[in-house]
Amino acid sequence: MAATPGPLLLVCHAHSGTDKHTSLYGADPLGLSSIHLGGKPVPRAFVRTASLAAALGALLFAFPRASAWAADRVTAEQVRSLVAASSPKASLSGKDMSGDDLSGLDLSGADLSGANLSGANLHGVKLVGADLTGADLSGADLTLAWIMRANFSRARLRGATLQTIITSTGLDNTPDQSATFAGADLSDAPITVNFAFDDMRGARFVHARMSVDMRNQSMGLLRTSFESARLDSADFTSAGLGHVTFRFAKLSHAHFVDADLRNADFAGADLTAADFTRANVQDARFTGATMTEVVGLTSPEGAR
């Protein structure tokens, strides 16, 4: 909380011959009344009025965001009503929807830039073409959300649940439906997503959990894919990446320090100047990968 301002004073100087008089016009929110104007005491009624005004000003100074916060906060019911009334796109930029149950909503094309969706239930929400630039989705549940052409640039998805996300209208991802996660933070998130062709330059996946549990694959291998994705300077420090595919991905200057990369597939990937210090690359595949200036990894057979 900001400190309460002290007495508010105006200092005036008046000259009479060779004498100089300093006059104070002031208001003390603490109720002090030793205020003089031109050498004479100011009436107490005036001091009380001025003190009240100063106290109100101090409150406004101390809580400048209170009214703004109330205006930005919207409930799940308000969001649903707004979406139903919007044609064709809802504007929810900067709104606070933290913890709201927005499951099943169609927010395709919505402006959600800078919105607070932390801890929100976004299960099955359609975010096709939505703008989530700089949005906070920390701890949100995006299971089965639709994200084709969505923009998550600089979004915070730390600890968010990203499981079985819908990334294409067909069986495979295509470049025209790719999403953007440039500069996004997906650290500590449990992830099973097909990120093929997505722009994820500079994204953070520190301690993200993407390793495949082979005991739970009775219906075929479900794994995260970064095939042909743009991941230059991405940070995978200490991430679980077992069985994850990076085929033909652009990973120059990416960080895999202390990552679990057992059985990961880097075939055809550009790993120029990537850092694999202390990474576990047991049974990982690097066939045809570009590994110029790679750090912490002896060039495997088949790499170039």
How would you describe what is shown here?
The protein is low in regular secondary structure. The chain has a domain at 8-64. The chain is 12% helix and 9% strand. It contains 3 helices and 6 strands; from the N terminus they run ββββαααββ. The chain has helices at residues 44-62, 66-72, 76-85, and strands spanning 8-16, 19-27, 36-37, 40-41, 162-163, 191-192. The strands form 3 sheets. Strands 1-2 form a two-stranded antiparallel sheet. The chain has a two-stranded antiparallel ribbon with strand order 3-4. Strands 5-6 form a two-stranded parallel sheet. A hairpin with a 2-residue loop joins strand 1 (8-16) and strand 2. It is globular, with a radius of gyration of 29 Å. The two termini are 58 Å apart. The relative contact order is 0.06.
